[in-house]
């Protein structure tokens, strides 16, 4: 049977419409979202792993030292041989909990009072580490005097005496024990008869605006007891 031309065109048009509707349906479904559903978050991509470069402790300590060296002030170390033991105020039974604190460093200047007499005044803000470090057979304590923009700041163009002694206690009996009695250590080390512990290295210095930093080191050693006349 022969189909009229106008009917054949109608059939092709209907078939094409169904074909177009079939192509659009998945796209429409894909764009539809349930209003009650929550979109799933996009997963964070894993970061690219990079190997860590090891830090050289010597280089780190060197950088720290260089940074501190730029600050004005008076700096130094107190050292003593490990065979001398650690400071103790109970005849060597126990070590002092703050071994470095058993040593007192002072920075002083002489000032004329209203009456015309000279008196000694402390200058600088003092700090000292608590526990000593060990280096090359010595115990070592580091200290510093620095400025804080107040009346205790280190003066410029004036003579400053930097000295150290054993004992920072108000009770002089404890200070005397640090100088003469046994310390904590192997065999409870003690100065031989007629000797006591002293700190050597005291000196006088002057700070200026162009040279605002100085270094003064001390060492604990045995020296004969000075007999009073």
Written account of the structure:
With 229 residues, the chain is an alpha+beta fold. The chain has a domain of 159 residues. It contains 3 helices and 11 strands; from the N terminus they run ααβββββββαββββ. Strands 1, 4, 5, 6, 8, 10 and 11 form a 7-stranded mixed β-sheet that branches. A hairpin with a 2-residue loop joins strand 5 and strand 6. The chain is globular.
What's the helix and strand layout?
Blueprint: H1 5-31, H2 57-68, E1 73-81, E2 103-112, E3 118-122, E4 125-128, E5 133-135, E6 138-146, E7 159-166, H3 172-180, E8 195-200, E9 203-206, E10 213-215, E11 218-224
Parallel strand pairs: 1-10, 1-11
Antiparallel strand pairs: 1-6, 2-3, 2-7, 4-6, 5-6, 7-9, 8-11
Helix content: 10-25%
- Global morphology: globular
The whole-number mean of residue pLDDT values reads 78
Distance between the termini: 152 Å
Order of helices and strands: HHEEEEEEEHEEEE
Oligomer: single chain
Tag the structure with descriptive keywords.
30% strand; 21% helix; four-stranded antiparallel beta sheet; seven-stranded mixed beta sheet; 11 strands; single chain; 229 residues; globular; alpha+beta
Tell me briefly what this model is.
With 229 residues, the chain is an alpha+beta fold. It has helices at 5-31, 57-68, 172-180; strands at 73-81, 103-112, 118-122, 125-128, 133-135, 138-146, 159-166, 195-200, 203-206, 213-215, 218-224.
């Amino acid at each position: 049977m022969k189909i009229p031309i106008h009917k054949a065109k109608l059939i092709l048009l209907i078939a094409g419409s169904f074909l177009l509707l079939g192509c659009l349906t998945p796209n429409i479904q894909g764009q539809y979202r349930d209003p009650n559903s929550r979109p799933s978050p996009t997963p964070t991509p894993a970061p690219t792993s990079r190997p860590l470069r090891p830090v050289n402790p010597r280089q780190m300590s060197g950088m720290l030292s260089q940074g501190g060296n730029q600050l004005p002030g008076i700096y130094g170390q107190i050292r003593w041989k490990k065979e001398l033991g650690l400071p103790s105020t109970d005849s060597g039974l126990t070590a002092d909990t703050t071994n470095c604190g058993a040593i007192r460093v002072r920075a002083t200047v002489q000032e004329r009072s209203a009456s015309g007499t000279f008196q000694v005044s402390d200058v600088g803000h003092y700090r000292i580490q608590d526990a000593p470090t060990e280096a090359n057979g010595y115990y070592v304590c580091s200290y510093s005097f620095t400025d804080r923009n107040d009346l205790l700041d280190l003066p410029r163009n004036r003579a400053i005496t930097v000295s150290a002694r054993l004992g920072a206690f108000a009770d002089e009996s404890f200070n005397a024990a640090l100088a003469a009695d046994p310390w904590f250590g192997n065999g409870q080390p003690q100065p031989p008869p007629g000797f006591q512990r002293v700190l050597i290295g005291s000196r006088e210095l002057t700070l200026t605006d162009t040279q605002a930093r100085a270094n003064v080191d001390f060492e604990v050693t045995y020296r004969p007891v000075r007999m009073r006349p």
